[in-house]
Design brief:
By secondary structure, the protein is α+β, with helices and mostly antiparallel strands. The protein contains nine helices and 20 strands. It has helices at 2-8, 25-47, 154-157, 160-165, 175-180, 251-263, 277-281, 287-290, 380-403, and strands at 19-23, 64-78, 82-96, 99-115, 121-134, 185-188, 191-197, 202-204, 207-218, 221-222, 245-250, 269-276, 296-312, 315-328, 334-352, 355-373, 407-408, 415-418, 423-425, 428-437. Strands 1, 6, 7, 8, 9, 10, 11, 18, 19 and 20 form a ten-stranded antiparallel beta sheet that branches. Strands 12-13-14-15-16-17 form a six-stranded antiparallel beta sheet, sandwiched between helices. A hairpin with a 3-residue loop joins strand 2 and strand 3.
Length: 442
């Protein structure tokens, strides 16, 4: 059965998730909290706007909304369905210079996220129930009858149907921000990453689960990636998480990232050795006849096969397979040795703002083997003595220069990540974090 399934997989590998996220109930509460001032601003603009010229009041007793205050704004999860938005707005209404009444506008709306034909996620309102009633005053009022309790002609001024049509705009998460999730982000000048939603999110008690597929572009062209041996699914937390968001990245994601960097040539490095041709001639006699003058020795390392990342409990390692051309000459490089270099190194992961910072930390294992020589046979022990210290120091240093800008995580515009805790598990990395709305500048 497994062989049969493996034969069927290639047709679907192009649509296989390799990372994703869970927006938790805590995250929804935070989005509601930061949306409340925004909602009040939008409602104040819509409800207190002066009437259009053709709707000018016939008499000065026309109702006028003089204050709008959002008293309650909550966003809760409805498992298997979506989200419920509940808003209560206190309105101050004057019908004459000396008469002011308070009304309460309540809105209950069901929202969910769909995927449109263009492949973008959209926030959709599936149901919306507005009610408008007068707040209890000294007069006895029937609170149960919406729109009619005040005896005022307020419902003509408040277009509750229009509010329902645009209720999703009261959230500080309009569809423009959802679209920003799938924007391409730069890794290096020639390499970009893009996270594409594979389907509409799923809703569970743990939160809103979204599966993403990563694509990498090199010089504007999407590159084929290594086939993931195991389809990745978002690991759900066993209990409710205090974090707003839990991001997860598969082992395949990291191998794909390094493969894209390799494809772009970013992992090819060149560095100067502390040796010269004269010092080498003391150990390798044929160097003297090949290089009569003393020249600095240069190493040019290129990848000879795709890198591979392995995730284990609390440990991430990258395996790099390089071929180093060792030569001399400042203007015209002349190689005299070709050495295969296999490096196994620990990866260190951290998060800054919305970027994952990956760095090559401790080298756990490094092997040198002679591939070709113009100066006769060279023993492995001598190769290591001469070149291992420089390779051990320079290869991680130069790769870290490439990686130092970090890799953008899936995120939506105007929000950054705080209180980040990274845990590395077998086959995947979990990144629980909190959302933080960035302060507006300018």
């Amino acid at each position: 059965l497994s062989i049969l399934l493996s034969l069927m997989v290639p047709a679907h590998t192009t649509r296989s998730p390799d990372c994703g996220g869970i927006l938790t109930p805590s995250g929804l509460r935070y989005l509601a909290e930061v949306s409340k001032p925004h909602a009040e601003s939008v409602l104040r603009h819509d409800l207190m706007a002066p009437p259009a010229p053709d709707q000018s009041p016939i008499s000065p007793s026309r109702n006028q909304i003089i204050s709008v205050k959002v008293d309650k704004f909550s966003l809760t999860l409805v498992p298997d369905t979506g989200m419920r938005l509940s808003i209560e707005v206190d309105l101050g209404i004057t019908s004459a210079p000396s008469t002011t009444k308070e009304m309460r506008l309540s809105i209950l709306a069901d929202l969910h996220v769909e995927m449109n034909p263009e492949g973008n996620l959209e926030l959709v309102t599936s149901d919306c129930k507005p009610t408008l009633e007068e707040v209890q005053s000294t007069e006895e009022t029937d609170r149960s009858a919406p729109h009619k309790s005040s005896g005022l002609d307020v419902d003509k001024q408040i277009n509750v149907e229009k509010i329902c049509l645009e209720v999703s705009k009261l959230l500080l998460l309009p569809n423009e921000r959802l679209m920003s999730l799938a924007a391409p982000f730069p890794i290096t000048p020639s390499c970009q990453v893009q996270y594409l939603p594979l389907a509409a999110p799923m809703y569970s008690e743990q939160g809103i689960i979204i599966s993403l597929q990563t694509t990498f572009q090199v010089a504007g062209t999407v590159i084929p990636l290594p086939v993931s041996p195991v389809p990745f699914s978002m690991p759900e937390p066993a209990s409710s998480s205090p974090s707003h968001l839990i991001l997860a990245f598969s082992e395949h994601f990291y191998t794909s990232l390094f493969s894209a960097l390799e494809e772009s040539g970013a992992l090819n490095v060149s560095f100067l050795s502390s040796l010269t041709t004269a010092t080498l001639a003391k150990r390798i006699t044929q160097m003297g006849s090949l290089f009569p003058e003393d020249l600095p020795v240069v190493l040019q390392a290129v990848t000879r096969s795709s890198p591979h990342v392995v995730l284990e409990e609390d440990r991430a390692i990258v395996k790099l397979f390089l071929t180093a051309q060792i030569g001399a000459g400042s203007s015209l490089f002349q190689s005299f040795l070709s050495v295969n270099v296999d490096v196994t190194a620990r990866l260190h992961l951290s998060v800054a703002d919305t970027r994952m910072i990956i760095s090559v930390a401790d080298i756990e294992d490094i092997e040198l083997s002679l591939a070709a020589s113009d100066v006769g046979p060279v023993l492995a022990a001598l190769l290591e003595e001469l070149f291992l210290p420089t390779i051990r120091e320079e290869v991680p240093a130069q790769i870290n220069v490439v990686l130092r800008q970090g890799v953008f995580l899936p995120h939506i515009a105007s929000f950054t990540y705080t209180d980040v805790n990274i845990t590395i598990h077998r086959d995947y990395v979990l990144i629980p974090c909190n959302l933080q709305l960035e302060a507006k500048t300018g």
